[in-house]
DNA sequence: GTGGTCTAGACCACA
DNA sequence: GTGGTCTAGACCACG
């Protein structure tokens, strides 16, 4: 099995992921204006073109819309955002299960280990 | 020069991870001889130097030992392997929890979502 | 410096086209007074200078005439307007045929496709 | 009605259109390799990045696929290409009908004018 | 000021 | 050699 070593995700996609999470978990609210391309470029320490590409991708995904000469805004469509949120969570769970199965862990064990981990964690950080 | 963006893990480390998993989950048993550097290089489709670095790293981690003129063998130390196995699993769980928390998911929800996912999955793939 | 790519037609020419169509299809009748340069500029959301150039061009084309102190009027020459109308229609047809030929569509097919399109369209919008 | 003047389509989209037509009408056959990004850039008198963007868009549209280190190829899916062809033709027809209607031409007249135009054209260029 | 496009030139992983 | 990403710096149309 030659040839399947992951090269790092492109920067503009890493930013896409970051912003998507921010939007989906409500850190950026519906209708909010995102920082301008140039601002965001400075914040991220990246070239404006890279951010531009990020914003294009976000628009293509439909979770952001741009108004000419005004800026880029979180789309006002709660349903879409919910859907994206669900899909992201599912991907995380799926990844987790796959990796655990690869380690030879059964489903019952996964549940047990997770429960244990969360309970230990709760002494410092009760929830 | 942005620096907060992850570049891909070096290939030799990706192979380290892969072999570690193979050993820890018993695909490579205690005392087994690993393929020679050249063989492994062919199998992985990479340069022998890369495999050499991989084996060095595995030896440094203590889960493999080289016998001059004979080859590279999985170390005969069940306790160590157990420890490594536990540590790997913990890392996977930790990563999962962090990502879910980043999405604003509470611990209760994590358990519920995972349970649901595993149950859905079981129709085709009962375990 | 690539040069074979169309840059957008100047705005004043786009307005020329628009007004020409309005006149030729009778939305602006023979002898009608066009809005003043300032009015039209507001209507179109452009600079008055731009409209000025538009009116000059329309006058050069002969389909409009300016009377000092009174305004700009559609020329009272039905024949000329007919001619312009025919020429515009011909340009549209020509453009259509060229594009279809570029797609490798034969003349018979053009007729057939157009007929089909118009008939489908007629369920909602009979004419 | 201020504000609807067409700015020229971006160069990379003009190239997209051009290549799409070439593919769809069979000038570029199924499985054919497109010129490399750099070659095409020279041919078109354009920056390689612009062509790169064109190729990305073509891939996004699904009518082209790229093989790492090998090149960009026309996708081997006759059905998809047929569909695209139909859609392009429809767009041309639709544009034609809209413009003619804007000129106050009825459907019957469109058919008649087109027929007449095609027949006149046939003296030089019989088909 | 905003987003969008384009060029020039560079570096990367891949085959 | 191929496609893909990134930077730097420029210009545009828009509100």
TrEMBL record, chains A, B, C, D:
Keywords: DNA-binding, Transcription, Transcription regulation. The keyword Transcription applies. It comes from Metabacillus malikii. This is GntR family transcriptional regulator. Residues 9-77 form the HTH gntR-type domain.
